[in-house]
Q: What sequence folds into this?
């Protein structure tokens, strides 16, 4: 066991240092849509007569985005998806600015924003890590140029020949001639260095996922694996409603990523109520499949049912647990989350060979947070499998073998409004023997009673319900209710039936 943990630690250390056998010339592009139409993204294969290779079957929805790993010199075509049918090869004579935009990858990671200009043409703005850091440094240079210290240093050098390698000009006559040259030199030198570091950091994050997934497979295969021993000091929190004090182990405490395990968080009575009320409504669990739609996937094999917490019912068994979850979350994160408009419980049953492969519950790319998206998760363990079923955070070298009544809590939004960069990516190990029951609370920021979680997908993009509302004028709540009812009748899988979740 010790040898395995040591090996994992060495691998993670190598990744953090940027030492890996992975391709070193990979660069990433993030394509952001600012148009009302859905967009298709194609790589132009110049070695095969301009054959167009679609990067994802699902188009980019309005205000959505797509991340693609690519290489220096590769070109991409962005097309209004409704006009893409029959488009197999790119030829210059087919160019149509009304429905097409094109860009080529450079040396650094790229962010491409697609919009329409005043003439209605599809246009794009490409900004690389290099240009972003250059802009930041140009701002710093302006400040530097007015700095009294720099002005004084310039006066001392006035009329003197510049030293070799200096950013000053020999015989410069005053600040206006001399300092801009210094600022330009400073900007280029530091911006290039920072851009390389940003690109390498993104590569390291992707390599961390690969190493973490391999470590996860070994972890899940070990039937004797116990919860990770934490070296961080534990946290205590007193529930103002029940008066009890809860002790939480701390496994990760970074600004944008935190992982805790709280002992004795749920009572037997609370767990039994959740399982009993969810059992008649269990359906195949789904994942977010793009365009705000819930989709079945082999990556997630389990049964799930929605159970709402009736917070206004004084006799509710599970409402105190719900409030307790949000109380703890706000205590350790400072988020100040409101319970209005939040998701109910997702009660999940894992049977033999069921699992949930590595994933993030919200956005974990380090991107700017979108209001309405998930920012934290609480997993309440109500029944422990005999063998298997642990929870892995392989990118953070954390394993939790959750026992009945414990609750794992993790958050993935930093104070700078940027999301976690993969540290809370996690999985549920396969069940080898027995059954595992959990109740999950997915917590969001920016939802209200009037515009609830049903309007957003996990990352904060418009949900299928919100898109249906926009197209037909039907409210998102009504659309969710209708789809959930259809799911119960004909087997279509609605979004875990939360819209009709039983309230207890």
A:
């Amino acid at each position: 066991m010790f040898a395995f943990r040591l090996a994992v630690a060495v691998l993670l250390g190598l990744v953090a240092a940027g030492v890996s056998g992975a391709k070193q010339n990979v660069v990433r592009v993030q394509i952001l849509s600012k148009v009302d139409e859905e967009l298709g993204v194609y790589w132009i294969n110049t070695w095969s007569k301009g054959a167009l290779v679609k990067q994802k079957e699902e188009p980019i929805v309005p205000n959505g985005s797509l991340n693609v790993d690519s290489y220096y010199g590769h070109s991409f075509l962005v097309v209004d998806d409704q006009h893409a049918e029959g488009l197999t090869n790119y030829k210059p004579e087919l160019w149509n600015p009304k429905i097409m935009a094109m860009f080529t990858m450079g040396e650094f990671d790229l962010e491409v924003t697609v919009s329409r200009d005043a003439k209605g043409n599809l246009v794009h703005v490409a900004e690389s890590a290099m240009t972003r850091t250059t802009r930041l440094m140009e701002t710093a240079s302006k400040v530097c140029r007015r700095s009294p210290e720099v002005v004084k240093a310039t006066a001392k050098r006035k009329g003197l020949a510049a030293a070799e390698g200096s950013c000053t000009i020999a015989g410069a006559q005053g600040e206006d001639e001399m300092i801009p040259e210094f600022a330009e030199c400073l900007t280029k030198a530091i911006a290039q260095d920072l851009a390389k570091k940003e690109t390498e950091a993104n590569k390291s994050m992707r390599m961390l996922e690969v190493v973490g997934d391999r470590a996860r497979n070994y972890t899940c295969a070990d039937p004797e694996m116990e919860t990770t021993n934490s070296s961080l000091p534990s946290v205590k929190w007193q529930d103002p409603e029940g008066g009890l004090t809860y002790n939480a182990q701390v496994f990760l405490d970074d600004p944008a990523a935190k992982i805790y395990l709280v002992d004795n968080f749920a009572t037997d009575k609370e767990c039994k109520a959740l399982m009993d009320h969810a059992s008649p409504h269990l359906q195949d669990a789904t994942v977010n499949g793009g365009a705000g739609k819930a989709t079945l996937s082999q990556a997630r094999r389990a049964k799930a049912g929605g159970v709402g917490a009736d917070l206004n019912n004084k006799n509710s068994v599970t409402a105190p647990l719900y409030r307790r979850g949000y109380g703890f979350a706000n205590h350790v994160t400072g988020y100040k989350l409101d319970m209005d408009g939040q998701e109910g419980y997702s009660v999940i049953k894992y049977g033999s060979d069921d699992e949930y492969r590595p994933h993030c519950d919200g956005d974990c790319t380090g991107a700017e947070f979108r209001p309405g998206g998930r920012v934290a998760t609480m997993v309440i363990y109500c029944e422990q499998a005999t063998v298997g079923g642990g929870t892995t955070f392989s990118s953070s070298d954390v394993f939790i073998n959750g026992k009945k009544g414990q609750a794992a809590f993790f958050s993935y939004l930093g104070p700078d409004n940027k999301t976690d960069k993969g540290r809370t990516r996690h999985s549920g190990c396969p069940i080898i023997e027995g059954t595992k029951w959990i109740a999950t609370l997915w917590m969001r920021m920016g939802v209200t009673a009037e515009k609830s979680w049903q309007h957003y997908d996990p990352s904060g993009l418009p949900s299928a319900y919100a898109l249906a509302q926009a197209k037909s004028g039907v409210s998102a709540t009504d659309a969710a209710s209708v789809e959930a009812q259809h799911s119960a009748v004909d087997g279509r899988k609605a979004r875990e039936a939360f819209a009709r979740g039983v309230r207890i």
In short: The longest strand covers residues 245-254. The longest helix spans residues 175-221. Residues 235-460 form a domain with the Jelly Rolls fold (CATH 2.60.120.620).
